Amino acid sequence: MDPSIQPEREPSYALYQKELFLLSQKGSHPEFSTRPDKLEELAKETLSKGGWLYASCNAGLGWTDRANREAFYRWRIVPRMLVDTTARDTTTELFGHKISAPIAFAPIGINKIYHPLGELNAAKVAGELNIPYCLSTAGSQPIEDVAKAAGTAPKFFQLYCPHDEELEDSLLQRAWDSGFDVCIMTLDTWQLAWRHEDIANSNYAFYRGIGAEIGLTDPVFRKRIKEAGLDPEKAEDMPQIGEKWIDNVWHGKAHTWEKVPKLIKKWKEISGGRPFLLKGIQHPDDAIKAVEVGCDGIVVSNHAGRQVDGAVGSLEVLPEIVDAVGDKCTILFDSGIRSAADVFKALALGAKAVLVGRLYVFGMGIAGEAGVRHVMKSLLAEFDILMNCAGVNKISDIKKSHLRYVEGVGGLSGTL
Fold first, then answer.
1. Binding residue per annotation — 207?
2. Which residues are the active-site ones (predicted)?
3. HSE of 219 in the Cβ direction (CA atoms, 13 Å)?
4. Is 195 annotated as a binding residue?
5. 282 is in an annotated binding site
6. In this structure, how many other beta carbons lie within 10 angstroms of the beta carbon of residue 78?
7. Whole-number pLDDT of residue 415
8. Nearest to 284 by CA among 336, 350, 348
């Protein structure tokens, strides 16, 4: 860009648009479209059947996934004109980290079913882009390896509380020692929802011995499998080891509010006082309770429609949750993000940052690390350009006044 017209700024994600257009001068073009419906179609073609089903399945009939999209559709952006946005700034601060945009990688488990390198693909791209990477307890690469791949990116650890407290302690200590300095406890997955197609195909990678790498590299869990007479060096034992791992950290026990203060205390002692969040909040009363028990933040999320069928869309409840606790804790948003407009709307309604999940998983399934990079750089470029076109200079300028709510849904159809 001509610096006399557009001054240099860092980061300038909008330049990725020009980079992609300039491929035409080499007789080329991007490998694939990042339009969400096209991205999803291509991922379906490239992923294994099991990978596609696990990435795409929702709870029940998928009404909550649809509710997420309908909620975004009802809020419309009102652009403002003749605002000098040539030197706009997409950066923001989150939990003491200056990040390049208010966008983070959502925690998603068993990435190896999408690509052999799994979580290492996304973690590396997060490091390149200086946006947070959140690792799931159900991840399929060791905590330490993911941390190394992410480099200097802010690293958050998403905790599924094991029923074995010694294992819980070990996971938290490993996360902290590896550079993960924010802990996010997910609340809505003590039991997998009824996901019709996954069940019809017996599609659960853990029970086939895939995805237990975080457990297999943990001294406490290795002790437990030895006590059970299982050997990770024996291929025939791996399905039972995978079953033992995920049944310990996901299934069979629903925690209560009594658990949270103890866990906060434990994490604060390990980390020297770093932030602790709860993910899965959908009701203002739960948000208020989270603040009362000492949480530094919450993630407004319905697990992307994968856990409770027929539930409210996350964006529907975000405004009332912000009204209830927005000045008392940091609010992140998750579930249904498909575009820069979605990011903008969630920020305008009070979220500090958003978590993006399925988009990068689809990119990973299509082209591994390069696919994740293309998807996330495209989203960041689209967001940068949207700020320009909507007349917004910096993240803190994005307000509810930039939106208008429209009753009803008329005309919403297809994949959004």
1. no
2. 303
3. 6
4. yes
5. no
6. 11
7. 47
8. 350
Structure tokens at 266: 């434990």
Hey, what's the torsion of the CAs at 185, 262, 150, 111, to 10 degrees? -40
- Domain membership of residue 4 (yes or no) is no
Give the catalytic positions in this structure.
Answer: 303
Encode pLDDT of 28-62 as tens digits: 999 999 999 999 999 999 999 999 999 999 999 99
Residue 252 within a domain: yes
For residue 136, say whether it is annotated as part of any ligand binding site: yes
CA–chain centroid gap for 8, Å, is 30
| Paired tokens of 45 | 């073609």
Q: Is the peptide bond before 11 cis (omega within 30 degrees of 0)?
A: yes
Work out how many domains the chain is built from and give that number.
1
* Secondary structure E strands in 160-243: 182-186
Distance CA 109, CA 119 (A): 8
Tens-digit pLDDT profile for residues 309-328: 999 999 999 999 999 999 99
139 lies in a domain?
yes
Q: Which domain holds residue 307?
A: 36-190+205-332+347-405
Alpha-carbon distance 331 to 318, whole Å? 9
What's the whole-number average pLDDT of the chain? 95
Residue 279 domain-assigned (yes or no): yes
Give residue 2's pLDDT: 62
**Stretch 137-144: mean pLDDT, rounded?**
97
> Which amino acid appears at position 140 of this protein?
S
DSSP letters spanning 120-131: HHHHHHHHHHT-
Using DSSP's 3-state secondary structure scheme, residue 96 falls into coil
